Amino acid sequence: LIAAPQGVAAKLQGILAPAGIVPAAVYCKGEEALAAPEAAHALVLTCWRLEDMTGPELAKRLQASGVMMIVPGDYDPQELEGADVLTLHNPISQDALIQAVRAMCYCGAKLQALEKKAQKLERQLAERKVIERAKGKLMDALHLSEKDAHYHIQKKSMDTGRRIVDIAQEILDSEEIVA
Question: Which DSSP category does 54 fall into?
């Protein structure tokens, strides 16, 4: 995603195109980039000044996975305080820009994969906790061993064709346990 004044955006597209890097969208105003649905999951390449706001303001307001900003040589780094931004000093070579974009895309893809894996592990842990609590409830109510409590939940799951975690949640939600 490119967020830059029209002339700068065209120049950036011209630099990136021969490398096979095509932006999903190009916005000339910061507000347009902020309103874009793809901005939250995109690498955003921007510059120091846009038509309606500064690059640092855009970077702080964006919830993007990565923001890369081309900054003037005399910029004040304190203006970017609180923004998670990779800065590239102007003038920048074509090769350096292409390599930086490729590196950010690679890191962004790795980060998304790790976030997806973390979400899956969190879900599995939450489901395991439900199952363990249901087993504990069965063990207390029916005086079963842990193995027998697990078998009870597993058998009901197989008999009804429902997930084990759903059966476990049903047990936890029920007022009384029937053997």
Answer: B
Average pLDDT, the chain: 91
**pLDDT range class, residue 178, cuts 50, 70, 90:** low
What per-residue string of b and e applies to 31-45 under the rule 16 or more CB within 10 Å gives b?
Answer: ebbbebeebeebbbb
Cis preceding linkage at 91, omega within 30: yes
Nearest to 66 by CA among 10, 106, 13, 114: 106
pTM to 2 decimal places: 0.70
Helix (H) or strand (E) holding 3: strand 2-3
CA 108 to chain centre: 9
Q: How far apart, in whole angstroms, are the C-alpha atoms of residue 136 and residue 105?
A: 46
Residue 172 structure tokens: 């936890």
E-state strands within 28-143: 43-47, 66-71, 85-89
User: Which phi and psi angles does 69 have, rounded to 5°?
Assistant: -125, 130
For residue 99, how many other CB atoms are within 10 A of its CB? Answer: 12
* Distances from the Cα of 79 to the Cα of 71, 83, 104, angstroms: 11, 9, 22
| 98-127 tens-digit pLDDT | 999 999 889 888 988 999 999 999 999 999
